[in-house]
Amino acid sequence: xxxxxxxxxxxxxxxxxxxxxxxxxxxxxxxxxxxxxxxxxxxxxxxxxxxxxxxxxxxxxxxxxxxxxxxxxxxxxxxxxxxxxxxxxxxxxxxxxxxxxxxxxxxxxxxxxxxxxxxxxxxxxxxxxxxxxxxxxxxxxxxxxxxxxxxxxxxxxxxxxxxxxxxxxxxxxxxxxxxxxxxxxxxxxxxxxxxxxxxxxxxxxxxxxxxxxxxxxxxxxxxxxxxxxxxxxxxxxxxxxxxxxxxxxxxxxxxxxxxxxxxxxxxxxxxxxxxxxxxxxxxxxxxxxxxxxxxxxxxxxxxxxxxxxxxxxxxxxxxxxxxxxx
Length: 326
Known about the structure:
Blueprint: E1 3-6, E2 9-11, H1 19-29, E3 34-36, H2 41-52, E4 57-60, H3 65-73, H4 82-104, E5 109-112, H5 115-125, E6 129-131, E7 155-160, H6 170-181, E8 187-192, H7 198-204, E9 208-212, H8 216-225, E10 228-231, H9 240-247, E11 252-254, E12 270-272, H10 278-286, H11 289-304, H12 308-324
Helix pairs in contact: 3-4, 6-10, 9-11
């Protein structure tokens, strides 16, 4: 009965069948707090059981579902005049945001991966929101895993993630064209991941190697082979892949929207650029070997400061008021 949301993601509308088993699990475990990670079927299950057992609920925001819904609706609204289609998409986004805010109000304490989302949640729910960023395994993701052939003179531009419309992947094809117009020929893309737009990207990105989904050391080696990480998404709440690239010593170019901009120190570990300026930002990095080397070092040093211990100490501290409220 599950419904496909993306190539590797589904939603199970019959999640209530798990209530008895999970209720027994919680009754035996006797939690002090229940922490859910969004309005998925598991999040709904956790919220329901926390209420049933009168246990404080914490909720963290990880995905901009309202923005995804608006973007995905645009192909359904394609038959409308452009102004009407845009208005309808904004209406869908606002409706989804209102529904999600209603869900998050069930929790006593909220978490989000960047300050902008924390402010949004607090204004929409009236609940306190705390920053919950993410850590990195800096031993796994490391420049030491770079195993490029010394005779390979191409610049490798990397992308890791889901190949879907909300990731703004069409910009990669535009970047390729603009770099070629500017006279750059010695480059190729390394694309890691899968998704519904993969066929389009393969057709429109002839300078690309598609590795499929990689994990563990294979993924770490892929990052380390890159020279610049190109991440055009406007909707990511944090950008795990950006932090993984930085830990691998790879400077990143990201948009001024969403969480990735909080990970990139503009001009130091990469650049924050509008879509129209992505190719210029890439050229600025690779055309100056000294700047590129500095950015690689700064990117690695920044990632070394992002530990999971520090992340979770902040989360545990934020639990205290919710637990004290009884």
